[in-house]
Write a structure and sequence with these properties.
The chain is built from 16 helices and seven strands. By secondary structure, it is α/β, with parallel strands linked by helices. A seven-stranded parallel sheet has the order 1-2-3-4-5-6-7. The two termini are 38 Å apart. The relative contact order is 0.10. The chain binds flavin mononucleotide. Flavin mononucleotide is lined by residues 1-4, 25-26, 53, 80, 82-83, 122, 154, 169, 194-197, 215-218.
Length: 321
């Protein structure tokens, strides 16, 4: 998710689940080809398994970007055909490509030839007034023919005229059954369901009908829900770390990143939800939000936030009142 699942976020999420597959923010093929490559593609080995999500519609550029992504060590290359923003439509990529299955197929084929990694596609069930039954089937069949065996389907249409990207993640109705029908019609394809799944419990309810579920906003707002995944979904015998253990394991990463020039709040902004629903979670968030952006802020801010959330230290603002 753009602006959200950067490398710091992914490192943090990985502390809660070894097996959950993580994705980068969408990166345009041009950014990979012409941008600051280390800034655009760099990631920590601990983040595996991690997929690189690309955006674009130029088969040649996407193929070259996929090749570079593979050389960087990503585990999968994903093509984003679900993003509805205007900026993305003007570059002719994202959800508007749901109407151009031949072009998407050409891109997928070129990406598949350029790297040995699996090439997957994230899409919607349709756009605007498309018939979500027929056009989704046609899209999937054509793109699967080009070599894509795995689709993540956001179970709502994108309405490209008149809705903001944010509204496009909430207003068009969710149709999970449409995604399940797709799985039934093409059982040999891997079909991952996405959209509006708000808890680990509801993710588990969908799992018997599809090959996987993708969580976006819920995993960001309440990241600790990932702590259950390895045990409940993948049958791991390991006890998940506690929230405090997650926090403690993040500190050395933060220290290293600070030494490399990152700012504290670039990392702490991703952990605000760690204590979601727990006592003193608000004071924890507030301490980070008020202090982590200050010049020279270091791990002492995190350590203080830890003492606030355990109740060992009073929240500063309350102490001053
Ligand atoms: C801030 C934000 C950024 C997003 N960026 C991307 C993106 O880069 N690529 C993508 O495929 N989807 C992106 N999405 C969409 C999500 O991946 C997901 O499909 C959508 O939010 C529905 O799933 P959810 O209800 O679990 O969040 C973004 C969503 C949000 C909220």
């Amino acid at each position: 998710m753009m602006e959200w699942t950067d490398r710091h976020c992914r490192y943090f999420l990985r502390l809660m689940s070894r097996r959950t597959f993580l994705y980068t923010e969408m990166v345009t093929a041009e950014a990979v080809l012409y941008g600051d490559r280390e800034r655009v593609l760099g990631f920590s080995p601990e983040e595996h398994p991690v997929g690189l999500q690309l955006g674009g519609s130029d088969a040649g550029k996407l193929a070259e970007a996929a090749r570079i992504g593979a050389a960087y060590g990503y585990d999968e290359i994903n093509l984003n055909i679900g993003c509805p923003s205007d900026r993305v439509q003007s570059g002719r990529f994202g959800a508007c490509l749901m109407a151009e299955p031949d072009l998407v197929a050409a891109c997928v084929a070129a990406m598949g030839e350029a790297s040995a990694l699996p090439v997957t596609v994230k899409c919607r069930i349709g756009i605007d007034d498309q018939d979500a039954e027929e056009s989704l089937d046609r899209f999937i069949d054509r793109v699967a023919q080009a070599g894509c065996k795995s689709f993540i389907v956001h179970a709502r249409k994108a309405w490209l005229k008149g809705l903001s990207p944010k509204d496009n993640r909430a207003v068009p109705p969710l149709d999970y059954r449409r995604v399940v029908r797709l799985k039934q019609r093409r059982p040999e394809l891997e079909i991952v369901l996405n959209g509006g799944i708000e808890s680990f419990a509801s993710a588990e309810l969908h799992l018997p009908q599809v090959d996987g579920v993708m969580l976006g906003r819920a995993a960001y707002a309440d990241p600790y829900l990932l702590a259950e995944v390895d045990r409940a979904v993948f049958g791991s015998g390991e006890t998940p770390p506690s929230r405090l253990e997650v926090l403690d394991r993040f500190v050395p990463y933060v220290e290293t990143a600070l030494k490399r020039g990152a700012r504290l709040n670039q990392m702490t902004r991703h952990i605000l939800g760690l204590f979601h629903g727990q006592p003193r979670a608000r004071a924890f968030r507030r301490h980070l939000a008020e202090n982590a952006h200050l010049d020279g802020a270091g791990v002492e801010v995190l350590e203080r936030a830890r003492r606030i959330v355990t109740g060992e230290a009073p929240p500063q603002a309350i102490a001053a009142e």
